[in-house]
Each structure stands twice: as structure tokens, then as C-alpha cells.
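C-alpha cells for chain A. Residues wanted.
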């Protein structure tokens, strides 16, 4: 996993359904290549294989609920995501929380498969516990700010700073990124100034009228 990074989570937004997911991913790829920065996209499971076949930038899964392939009707297994073209996985998002024992198993298995692993956490203490599991990155995201347009880097900077300091003290090999309410390039720049190594965001990019221009705005701070 390369840093600094911008990770775009498509969630289950209608704006990123079907071929529209590919269009957004291609816009992200264009920005990544033009600027020479690291951008990853996380489409819905339904579009993951299609997106992975269409772009060269990393494609992450939004989550998982089964460790290994097998007789698991209506579930998503890590091994299947790897076969579908996923380069990484986002775990424990506040909209898809996991129990600690599940999270530990998924992190270990994902790393065994060679997948990038990003674990989401709501606060510094939980972020430290997440970092202890050995992911490549922890994304600290206060859930009350997600989707509000109130950027964590502006409204809860102390949460970001405390997380960066705490994780660096005990698990220096785990990167800290942040998210929640990120809407602009200024928000991304503020997050990086606080010591993070990237940003995880969703609606600002996915719901933009011009995906290319918005992703370009959000990605430019990665150059500084």
C-alpha cells in the first residue's frame, strides 16, 4: 500500500451503480496518472469485478463477512474478492461494523492473501486496538461526521492528532488516514497537515457533477 493515498468509497450510491462505477473509477485513474499520486477506489461488491477489469489503479472491497470461500449463500468471502480483482479491503466501517474476533481473522487472512488492509475506527483508543491487529492503515472516522460535510480535519482535529500520535508510538508501521465529512481539497490538505497519510471519502467525489474535476481538487494536496 502506497502513501499518501486518497481512497474513494462508492458505497451503494446510485450515482456509482453499474457502468457509472467504471466512469468514476476511470476519472480517478486519470487524475492519479496525471498527478502521479496514489488513488484507490472502493466500488460496491456488485461492480467490483467490472471496475477491477477496467482500471489499473487499486480497487478495494468495501467489506467482507466470510473469511474463506465455501458454502456461504449471500455472503462475501475474502478469497472471492481476491479472485474478482480486489487489491485491498476496507474493514469495520461504521456502516458495516465487525466484532473484534471477526476483525482479527479478516485482517490476518487478507494479509495472507496479499491484500491491502484498511481498518476503520471511530476514535483514538479504538484506532490503537485496530492497529494492534496489523493492518496496513487505520482510518479514524468519527461516525457522527460521516456524510455531514463537516470535515473531521476541521471539526475534530484533536481526534486525528491523538490517533496519529498514539498509533505512531506503539505501531509505527501502521499508517493513519482519516475521513468523515471530507468535502474539499482544503479538507484533505488540513488532514495531511495533522499528520495523516491519506484520506478516505465518499459522497464528495461520487456525487460530484464533474467527477474528474472534483477528484483532481481532492487529490492535489497529496502532492505537497
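Reply:
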Amino acid at each position: 500500500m502506497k502513501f499518501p493515498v486518497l481512497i474513494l468509497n462508492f458505497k451503494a450510491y446510485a450515482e456509482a451503480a453499474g457502468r457509472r462505477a467504471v466512469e468514476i473509477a476511470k476519472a480517478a485513474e486519470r487524475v492519479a496518472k496525471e498527478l502521479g499520486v496514489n488513488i484507490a477506489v472502493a466500488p460496491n461488491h456488485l461492480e467490483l469485478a467490472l471496475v477491477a477489469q477496467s482500471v489499473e489503479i487499486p480497487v478495494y472491497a468495501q467489506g467482507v463477512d466470510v473469511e474463506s470461500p465455501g458454502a456461504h449463500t449471500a455472503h462475501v468471502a475474502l478469497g472471492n474478492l481476491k479472485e474478482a480483482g480486489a487489491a485491498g479491503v476496507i474493514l469495520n466501517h461504521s456502516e458495516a461494523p465487525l466484532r473484534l474476533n471477526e476483525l482479527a481473522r479478516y485482517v490476518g487472512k487478507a494479509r495472507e492473501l496479499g491484500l491491502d488492509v484498511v481498518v476503520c475506527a471511530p476514535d483514538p483508543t479504538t484506532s490503537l486496538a485496530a492497529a494492534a491487529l496489523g493492518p496496513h492503515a487505520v482510518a479514524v472516522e468519527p461516525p457522527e461526521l460521516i456524510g455531514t460535510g463537516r470535515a473531521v480535519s476541521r471539526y475534530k482535529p484533536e481526534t486525528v492528532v491523538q490517533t496519529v500520535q498514539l498509533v505512531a508510538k506503539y505501531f509505527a508501521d501502521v499508517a493513519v488516514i482519516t475521513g468523515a465529512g471530507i468535502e474539499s481539497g482544503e479538507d484533505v490538505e488540513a488532514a495531511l497537515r495533522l499528520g495523516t497519510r491519506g484520506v478516505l471519502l465518499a459522497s464528495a467525489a461520487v456525487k460530484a457533477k464533474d467527477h474528474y474535476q472534483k477528484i483532481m481538487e481532492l487529490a492535489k494536496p497529496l502532492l505537497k
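The first helix runs from residue 19 to 35. The longest strand covers residues 116-121.
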